[in-house]
Amino acid sequence: MDVPLKKQLVDKGFAIDFKMTRDMHNAVTAIVAENVSLIKSIPQRYFTNVESVVLQSVSRGGDLAQLKKTLGQQFGVTARRAELIARDQNRKANSALAAVRQHALGITEGIWRHTGAGQHPRPDHVKATGKKFSLRKGCLISGEYILPGEKINCGCIWEPVLPTFED
Question: Is the pTM of this model over 0.70?
């Protein structure tokens, strides 16, 4: 989720070293706990362990291969399901991280971008392309405020709306 921001900043001559802040850590921990609790294919008694391996994956920059392998080996999840969980958990965590990081930089809005990567795109996500939204609130889609990447299998992203710098 930070790729569009990095590109915009580089194009404008800025260089920023992104590091995990306390607010980012709190946000990703909360989102991972919330989303792990929604996984139906892993018994609830393993959720704390799953949260831990997902957090490790996110802190390593989204190591999907290792997360998929761990989910299969430690929790008996099929390869296909482990791949979905790994990809989905990382997207959600990265979306939350990007929103917190961008807010800390003074970026409060984004523009929804449907990537077109999925085989079965959500029509409401496609329709939202180009729509400006608040990073705190999310984009209103089908009566619900969400961030890109928040829904299961959502590969959408956002383009940060950089504040203007006027004299």
Answer: yes
